[in-house]
Amino acid sequence: MLLAGALAGLVLAVAALPGGLLGGQVAKAALGAYAELPDALRTPAQPQRSYLYANDGKTLITTFYDVNRTDVPLAEIAPVMRQAIVAAEDRRFYSHGGADLRGIARALVANLRGGGTEQGGSTLTMQYVRNVLKTDPTRTAEERQAATEQTVGRKIQEIRYAGALEKTLSKDEILNRYLNIAYFGSGAYGVAAASQRYFGKAPGDLTLGEAALLAGLVQSPDEYSPIDGDKARALERRAYVLDAMAGTGAITAAQAASAKAEKLTLHPTAQPNGCTAVAQGHDDWGFFCDYLRQWWLTQPAFGNTVKEREQALRRGGYTVVTSLDPKVQQTAQQQATAVYGYDNKRALPIAAVEPGTGRVLAMAVNRHYSLDENPAGQANRPNTVNPLISGGDSVDGYQAGSTFKMFTMLAALEAGKPLSTGFDAPAKLPTRYAAEGEGACDGKWCPANANPQWMDGYRMMWDGFGRSVNTYFVWLAEQVGPAKAVEMAQRLGITFRADSDAAFARDDAENWGAFTLGVAATTPLDLANAYATVAAEGTYCTPLPVVSVTAANGEKVAVGQPSCKKVLDTDVARAATDAARCPVGQQSAYGQCNGGTATSVDRIVGRPVAGKTGSSEQNATETFVGFTPQVAVAGIAANPDDSTDLVGAAVQAKVIDAVARVMKTAVSGQPVKDFTAPSRELAGDPQRPKPQPTPRPDQPRQQQDRGIPSDLLRWLQNRRG
């Protein structure tokens, strides 16, 4: 009552002034107030929803927000919506100078008399000022609270700020800003969010009845909301707004009557928020979304701290076009679930990467990305949010077996050893590394070939890699030093997340003889990107989950460009690729392939392709990574919760088939590109001094590819010094 009395006196005193004097005083006050305007009123920094799209820029993955709102220009808001909000909240909007003093006086008198709904005297401009100041993220909580205090001083300041804005912004600019910030209930801030929330449409498509209903909500959004509040009250408010529109001449009485008679038809649309709320039927996208979010939190462009970057994602109104390819993702998910169902304790995580950019095209696994509760005894299935494809948190990765022979081969080529480097590979190879028990020969580690008849004999890098000859690559690692193979893997992006692996790499890499057989844990994403580096002829690119990021003001953020560097000599990469043609059933440029462990890939992909299989000891895991010049894909079959659960050799062919089909989808419609042959210098002189063993007639073409005995593996992994 005291506030009302004070304001009434102020308003009546001002209203009694002559018109010319009133205009001069208001102008003077407005100019003074403009100098004091908070930055938020000059350049609004209101929280907005961020959108994540697939690489087509159209397929919505999800949104992130603290406040569900998105700014839209006035031209994209239906004219009836603009007319409805003016009629409902400020009929004299286009004639006053920011503060409608007579309107305030009229509201005060009505409120003092009582007997009906409380009336407000704030103009749209004053409401806009209040909304900005109470939600400005740059102000303290105390300052935001003060913006709504019921005091004379606050009201006078609001009037002065409104007058200042009216002197600097056009009426349409103020109306546009108001419509983009007003709260319409049910969590929707701004007309774009409101039209989607209530009617599932853009604000430019609102009908007269829909616009009138939305305009009626802003006076008491929680009470009038037809979703969360009172539907009958919402219809009463709609009728009030329609009558008000007829009163302003915006519509005819007949139009108002027709709209009043319309049945209220809602299409409530809840905007997804975060990675667990991806588009319906696509919860597999959540793993990619989570990877993008983790990447976002490392980018200085979005803030100096992790907290600031998280806030930027949820409040900054960014439009993010990600690198996710829906078609490749769909194939990857179909293939992963074809091998293992969602409820299977074993998993097949698959990752696809684009060589030369590092852009991640797909991340799939036979799990739902969800926080939903799992059945008793099933910790991570069928639902999980653990990064099974990219690693991190509690996920160290999985042994990838002989796929790590690539790093030894690259190290040897870089050291000047040509592809023709020959060695008479025995069934077992005594090494310089001390060992006891199974797998030891006279106190030395003695690795064996999985299929001696098919693998033993004189080998060069071509058929040593094609047939995955353990003893050849352990010998080759000894020639160049295991530390160089370890360093090569790290150079190509292999991260040692397991503590034991990191300790070996840091303290004892030169004695890590088993490294070439893939005893270190890795992830499909790391492995695919490492092989993508070879496909890109030695150019390593940091894995990148985005194509572009656009800020709310329309400016591009400088984070969408690939971050690449040359880490291998071009000819070295070409030589390794030439040898990698052998495992997949194709022929090297020098005609030296004579058998492979994944020969079905050539038939499936149907264009130049390379790759490598990998089986860890006792077939605990099965891996295949393949690449063309345009894509690299890796899949690892494993039990992510129990490394002692052996997936078995039978699944190897399925893993190979799954990865190959993902590659085929990824390159579909793209021009066929061939690999460039390496120089004669790195090829060397491929002379074979001994006849080659040939497979028995009953020998399967797709060969088993195995590692080292499990007890020796444990000893090697735990050995120090």
Q: State the CATH topology of the largest domain.
A: Beta-lactamase
Instruction: Kindly state the percentage of residues in helix.
Output: 40-55%
Q: Which architecture of the largest domain would the CATH scheme give at its second level?
A: 3-Layer(aba) Sandwich
Strand order of the largest sheet: 5-4-19-18-17
Chain-averaged pLDDT = 87
Low-confidence stretches: 1-8, 10-32, 115-119, 696-702, 707-721
**Gap between N and C termini, in Å?**
84 Å
Total discrete domains: 3
Label the overall shape.
Answer: elongated
Labels describing this entry:
721 residues; alpha+beta; Penicillin binding protein transpeptidase fold; Beta-lactamase; 3 domains; 5-stranded antiparallel beta sheet; 4-stranded mixed beta sheet; 29 helices; 42% helix; disordered N terminus; disordered C terminus; multifunctional enzyme; carboxypeptidase; Glycosyltr_51/Transpeptidase; protease; Glyco_trans_51
Question: Can you put this structure into words, describing what you see?
Answer:
- The protein has three domains: 48-66 and 272-322, no CATH class; 69-261, Biosynthetic peptidoglycan transglycosylase-like (Penicillin binding protein transpeptidase fold), CATH 1.10.3810; 389-683, 3-Layer(aba) Sandwich (Beta-lactamase), CATH 3.40.710.
- Helices cover 42% and strands 10% of the residues.
- The chain has 29 helices and 19 strands.
- The strands form seven sheets. The chain has a five-stranded antiparallel β-sheet with strand order 5-4-19-18-17, with helices on both faces. A four-stranded mixed β-sheet has the order 2-1-3-15. A two-stranded parallel ribbon has the order 6-7.
- Residues 1-8, 10-32, 115-119, 696-702 and 707-721 have low confidence and may be disordered.
- This is Membrane carboxypeptidase (Penicillin-binding protein).
